[in-house]
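**Reference record**
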Amino acid sequence: RVTRLRAAVVQAETPSDLTDGLSRTGVLVQEAAAKGAELVVFPEAWLSGYPAWLDNCRDAALWDHAPVKRVYARMVENSVAVPGDACTALAQIARESGVTLVMGVNERVEAGPGRGTLYNAVLTYGPEGDLLNHHRKLLATYSERMVWGHGDAHGLRAVPTRAGECSVRVGALICWEHWMPLSRQALHESGEDVHVALWPTVHEMHQVASRQYAFEGRCYVLAAGSLMRAAALPAELEPHPGKVSDGDQWVLRGGSAIIGPDGAYLAEPVYDTATTIMADLDLARLAE
C-alpha cells in the first residue's frame, strides 16, 4: 500500500480579479504538478483576494460610505458562485493536472436562500475534477462580519481522495475556526490524515495554532497564507497612516509552512516571498 504523497502550498500575491485569479491558479497548479505535487492547496479567499482593506484602510465601517460600497460591489463581482463557471474552471484545473486541489474562495450565493450573501468558503476537488467538499467558515472574524455571512456545519469533515497512488483523507478549516474546539473535534473524528489550515497570512499565533492542530489531531498540516502589498489595496480607500507607510509594504506576508504530526516543521515558514512550498508526507507516521 502506497503511503507517501507530495504536497504543495502555493504562496503568491493575491490576484487582481477573478479572471486573473483563475488564470494564475491554472499556471501555479501546473507548475506544482510538474514538480511532483499530488495535493495542491491555496490560502484563505485566494479567489479573489482576502479583504485586507477592512483592517488597513480608513472609514471601512462608515454607514452608506460610497467608496466602501464600490469596493464591496467589486468584491461581489469577483466572487465564486457554487456551482458556476469558476467552479467548472477549478474542476478542469484539478482534472488536467491530476491533483487534489484545496482552494479558498469568496463565495457568492446567486439564487435561493441567502441570495446575495458572500461567504468565506473552502472547496476541495479530487483529481478527476469532482467537488468533494464545500465548507463555509462558521463565523466571520471581527471586521470580516461586514462582508461575510455566517456559515454552517456543512462540509465540516475530512473527505477521502487520491493523491497519486495514495489514498488520503483531507480536511480544512479557515482561520479562526482553529480556535473553535468543536470544529477541531469534528475534523479529528472524521479521520483526517492531512489538514489544510487556510489563513490570510500565517503570523506567529497562526503558526502556534497550526502546530498545535497537527499535534492534537496527529495529522499533517498545510498552513497556507497569501501575499499582498499595500499598493494592491483598493484605490477608492485611504490606507490608515498608522498601519501603512508606502505601497511596497506587505500587508499580508505569507508565512506558509508544512507541519508533521508531531508538531514539528517539515517546511519552515516563508515570509515576504512568492514560492510554492513542498514536502513529501508519509502517512505511516500518523500511526507512529
Summary: The radius of gyration is 18 Å.
